[in-house]
Amino acid sequence: MHVAAIVPAAGKGQRMGMGRNKAFLPLQGKPILAHTLSVLSACSVIDEIVVAVSETDLCLCNQTLLGRAGVTKRCKFVVGGPTRQESVRCCLDAASSETDLFVVHDAVRPLVTLSMVESVISLAAQRGAAVCAVPSKDTVRMSDDGVFFSCTPDRSTVWLIQTPQAFAADLFRAGHDLATRTGFTGTDDASLVEALDMRVYIAEGSYDNLKITTREDLVLADAILKHRKGEELDVGTRDDDREPSDN
Fold it and tell me: Which end of the chain is more exposed for a tag (fewer CB within 10 A), N or C?
């Protein structure tokens, strides 16, 4: 089975407010994108990686970046489109024609683990389509007008969708072809497959697998990486949280 990983990284990251593509912002001394590519490259079942970047960022994607990411397998950079969906399509077209399964992962989810990538690929290989997701920890309310709430769905039925997401190649290509013909824009990659009336299965995600969107996310990602390395974190212990003394 030939597996191609797709990484859309052509966004401008305007919500970050840093004036540059957030995928190239530093996280513990190397670009966020390098962390992401490092995990994908370490996955033994992935054969190639295709990354969509903007034309202005193409010059940043060189052997130095790949070296810092520890990428040892075939990796190609292509110019993406004006939207995430179009960038994914650019990668789809640039991937090997022998691809049997695609796995799509956000460039700015650098905390993904190897086990998550492997499990979503395995499930998609069996079922055709799978996404990583976690149950919502918060109550979710719906609003039709942004003024007041209209309904509250049962929290036990609400899942927070993440990447990686994986799909059989023919299914994923068919979803993109349908979207192109009809002008459909999906909320994520799986929605294009659901538009074909196909089921998408749930693979276990992680609450650590955050998408870096704001500066606060960057701080949190740094803390999680330090925790994984066993570094002690200062969590601001208060005096009343400490064990009482004998005196």
Answer: C
pLDDT digits (tens, 9 = 90+) for 32-75: 999 999 999 999 999 999 999 999 888 888 888 888 889 989 99
Contacts of 178 (CB under 8 A, 6+ apart): 184, 192, 195, 196
Residue 235, judged by CB atoms within 10 A of its CB (0-12, 13-18, 19+), counts as: exposed
Which residue ranges make up each domain of the chain?
Answer: 3-227
- pLDDT single digits (tens) 149-177: 999 999 999 999 999 999 999 999 999 99
The structure tokens 């009809």 sit at 182
- b/e per residue, 185-199, with b = 16+ CB within 10 A? ebebbbbbbeeeebe
The three-state DSSP-derived secondary structure of 90-135 is: HHHHHCCCCCCEEEECCCCCCCCCHHHHHHHHHHHHHHCEEEEEEE
Q: How far is CA 86 from CA 115, 217, 229, 233, in A?
A: 28, 26, 37, 40
Largest Cα span, the chain: 76
**CATH code at 3-227:** 3.90.550.10
How far is residue 161's CA from residue 131's CA, in Å, rounded to a whole number?
Answer: 7
Whole-model pTM: value is: 0.90
Does residue 160 contact residue 202 with C-beta atoms inside 8 Å?
Answer: no
